[in-house]
Amino acid sequence: MLARILMISILAAVIANGSVSWLKSVGWMNKTQYNALVLEHQAFLTRAREYMKNPGAFSNHDFQALKEQNRQLGPTIRSYLREIQGPLIFTKLLKYLVMLMLAAFGLAAIVRRENYLNKDRVLLGLVALVLVMTAVSGYRFGLQVMMPGIYGFLFLPIALTAGSIARPQNLQLLARFLALSLIILLLSCPVEYVRGIQYFSSGDWIHKRISGFLLQPNTMGIYAVCSFALIASLNQYKPISGFHVFWTVVTLALVMLSGSNTAAVAFVVFLGVTAIRRSKLTGFTTAMAFGLLVLALIAAITIIDRPIMDSAMGRLAKYQLYYTMDITSLTWLFGQGAGIASNTFLNFNSQFPVNPSHAIAVWISTDSTPLLLIIQVGMVGCLLFYALLIRAMIFDPLLRPVYLVFILCSLSINIIEVFPLNAVLGLMLAHSFYTRPGLRQKA
To answer: Which of 20, 137, 281, 308 could disulfide-link 146, Cβ–Cβ 3.0 to 4.6 Å?
Structure first.
């Protein structure tokens, strides 16, 4: 019963987290402001399409004016969609409550001796480093930076304590609720496609990218693929049936609507790896399977029709920017502290401004888990995080493909800040080490 309540809470929190932004996006809330933005956005898109059809007809002055309009419109739209005031702020706070509940119930089970503390050395090392760097953040930058920074690492107490909650039957229950969320997400897409304001003012100037209640298109695509990977992996020993085909089609639709290259690549890789695992191919047939996988990747990226190299180079440029800053060897190794450059802090700061002037790269929007970890807990913390995921892959064959998808997706998103993927990651880690052969007897 407790597990069911927790899993229902995860479903409720993920929908509530983006519900206000979605309602504002389609004009079912704040209608006056929505109508004004729609007119402004449509005027911009009309000019943008004209430029794409005939660039030569635009003078340099006209082109610069179009760029300036895009530069101003993007932040205006994002501010409109993100701004939440009054009692509605509870829709955002619910995810924090759910994360804390998962860790609290796991800790309560340990106290009652129904569970044990996860004693994996890599996990404990990462937890120790995060605790130290959280204290450093509070000392150097204050609570307004430290408190938002804690959220990105809440998957760790879940991984430490939630072994009894993350039993296979409870993961199956979680997968069912994630599946339900995908259906709700897909049903919301036609409304957003017709009425929604794009999160990015330009994005693809012709095709809309859908966000659903996940706030950003890339997040929606990645959420769909990660959820599908868990659903499919927990049912991987069942014969191929309409169940597998149905969820594959649902996920494919969400990935295409999101326009996320990362999600498309992760989706195809997961299908390829799963197919190879199921068929147990060897020799020449394995080589052919990998060749088909590469062709499928190329096809997926072509269908998405967004320049993948532009996206990749944009993220790499942020690594390069951080590398060129005046950073000491100690900071490279152990970071600056929890909260710096996190999306949670940046969003929090828009409501409660603070300026930690002596922090480095505090305003970088990292869009990449490795860079976020390097900034906050250094190269040591980053290596410990990915070592932890790889160890979990080794210990848990059932969830091995899911960890692969999480690792791929983490390269283009701060996955430890994306709810409920951070909660799912914590539960997966708890499951992987809780069910590790011999570990329970040693504990």
So the answer is: 137
Tokens of 404: 């692969």
Kindly indicate the confidence band of residue 206, based on its pLDDT and cuts at 50, 70 and 90: very low
320 located within any domain: no
Residue span of the structural domain in which 159 resides: 2-310+369-442
Q: How far apart are CA 297 and CA 264, in angstroms?
A: 8
Average pLDDT value for the chain:
81
How many residues appear in the chain? 443
Contacts of 236 by beta carbon, 8 Å cutoff, 6+ apart: 274, 277, 278, 398, 401
CB 91 within 8 A of CB 19: yes
Whether residue 34 is contained in a domain is answered as yes
| Structural domains counted in the chain | 1
Own/partner contacts of 83-90, CB < 8 Å, gap of 24 or more, are 83/350, 84/20, 84/21, 88/20
Q: How is 309-358 classified by DSSP, letter by letter?
A: HHHHHHHHHHHHHHHTS---HHHHHH-S-TTTT-HHHHHHHHHS----TT
DSSP string over 391-437: HHHHH-GGGHHHHHHHHHHHTTS-GGGSTTHHHHHHHHHHHHHHSST
- Residue 317 in any domain: the answer is no
Q: How is residue 437 written in tokens?
A: 């052969």
Residue 443 has pLDDT above 70, yes or no: no
User: Could you give the CA distance from residue 370 to residue 291 in angstroms, rounded to a whole number?
Assistant: 29
Q: Which residue has the tokens 């020993």?
A: 237
Q: What span, in angstroms and rounded, lies between the C-alpha atoms of 143 and 153?
A: 16
Query: At 297, which amino acid appears?
Result: L
3-state secondary structure of 207: coil
Q: What is the pTM of this model?
A: 0.87
Confidence label for 205 from pLDDT (cuts 50, 70 and 90)? very low
Query: For residues 237 and 249, what is the distance between their CA atoms, to the nearest angstrom?
Result: 20
> What's the CA gap between 147 and 15, in Å, rounded?
23
In Å, the largest CA–CA distance within the chain is: 75
CB neighbourhood size of 216 (10 A): 24
Helix (H, G, I), strand (E, B) or coil at 71: helix
Report the candidate in 336, 316, 337, 317 with the shortest Cα–Cα distance to residue 326: 336
| C-alpha separations of 257 from 6, 210, 212, 216, 305 in Å | 30, 6, 10, 12, 12
Q: Is residue 344 part of a domain?
A: no
